[in-house]
């Protein structure tokens, strides 16, 4: 299930927080994850589900993609969450701690045609990433780097070196199947420089965007995961030069001292399509 919309900034909102649900209607995020899982206290689980259903009925989130994260099926709420989401005005359902195709089949048996997203946040899930990505309802991976750190017993490091194997496996699987891949959250939500560094790293790796926990993180993610002016300008010049080379019967052009072949044109066109899609979000 391929998606062509921008997913630079994917904001978590605890579904129990009425003020945050309201505030998000005016925030510049590409997608929202309405959370019924970890951000909602046990005593609030059922109220949050009802509040979310009512809130989504009002349909005021505009072009922002609406994803609902349910509780796992090993919890007391998972199955009821899934049944409720199936009739909500949501674009996709997000299942936490996905480790097997069987879990996805069980969810799809309840949510029907609704696209599924998977939280990739356990070692077993990452080892099975290829099969999970290939599920017919799968539309995107969200990295759960907090759970992954817990499971691996790693320390949080600025370079995220201990997580690279898991993140890389998920990216490979996502790209092999043409689904979205969104990086994990940056917990220190007041540390803009740290967030920027992690967004740049995620973008360099190939992620489509970053999950965020606070509105203050939106601008940095939107900037880092969008093509820069320089990238867009280069893409246009590469396409122009390649078209001219082809017209002259040649298969290679040179731009800024570097070769441009048809594979670079695929990337250039993708960059320009992204620029257009981002402009349409405004
Ligand atoms: C982190 C927070 C608890 C901070 O909350 P708070 O102290 O209330 O923040 P502020 O006072 O600075 O808030 C300013 C205004 O912004 C609104 N707000 C805050 N957060 C959000 C949000 N996420 N979405 C929309 N709006 C938000 C406040 O309502 C204030 O509005 P106003 O009244 O107009 O001033 C809080 O930000 C928070 O709860 N964040 C989300 C936490 C969350 O969702 N966690 C779960 C996802 S992370 C995870 O589980 C990842 C994964 O599974 C893994 O394993 O890694
Ligand atoms: Mg998690």
UniProtKB/TrEMBL annotation:
<dbReference type="InterPro" id="IPR040442">
    <property type="entry name" value="Pyrv_kinase-like_dom_sf"/>
</dbReference>
<protein>
    <submittedName>
        <fullName>CoA ester lyase</fullName>
    </submittedName>
</protein>
<feature type="binding site">
    <location>
        <position position="147"/>
    </location>
    <ligand>
        <name>Mg(2+)</name>
    </ligand>
</feature>
<dbReference type="InterPro" id="IPR015813">
    <property type="entry name" value="Pyrv/PenolPyrv_kinase-like_dom"/>
</dbReference>
<dbReference type="GO" id="GO:0016829">
    <property type="term" value="F:lyase activity"/>
</dbReference>
<dbReference type="InterPro" id="IPR011206">
    <property type="entry name" value="Citrate_lyase_beta/mcl1/mcl2"/>
</dbReference>
<dbReference type="GO" id="GO:0000287">
    <property type="term" value="F:magnesium ion binding"/>
</dbReference>
<feature type="binding site">
    <location>
        <position position="121"/>
    </location>
    <ligand>
        <name>Mg(2+)</name>
    </ligand>
</feature>
<keyword id="KW-0456">Lyase</keyword>
<feature type="binding site">
    <location>
        <position position="69"/>
    </location>
    <ligand>
        <name>substrate</name>
    </ligand>
</feature>
<dbReference type="GO" id="GO:0006107">
    <property type="term" value="P:oxaloacetate metabolic process"/>
</dbReference>
<feature type="domain" description="HpcH/HpaI aldolase/citrate lyase">
    <location>
        <begin position="8"/>
        <end position="215"/>
    </location>
</feature>
<dbReference type="InterPro" id="IPR005000">
    <property type="entry name" value="Aldolase/citrate-lyase_domain"/>
</dbReference>
<feature type="binding site">
    <location>
        <position position="121"/>
    </location>
    <ligand>
        <name>substrate</name>
    </ligand>
</feature>
<keyword id="KW-0479">Metal-binding</keyword>
<dbReference type="Pfam" id="PF03328">
    <property type="entry name" value="HpcH_HpaI"/>
</dbReference>
<keyword id="KW-0460">Magnesium</keyword>
<comment type="similarity">
    <text>Belongs to the HpcH/HpaI aldolase family.</text>
</comment>
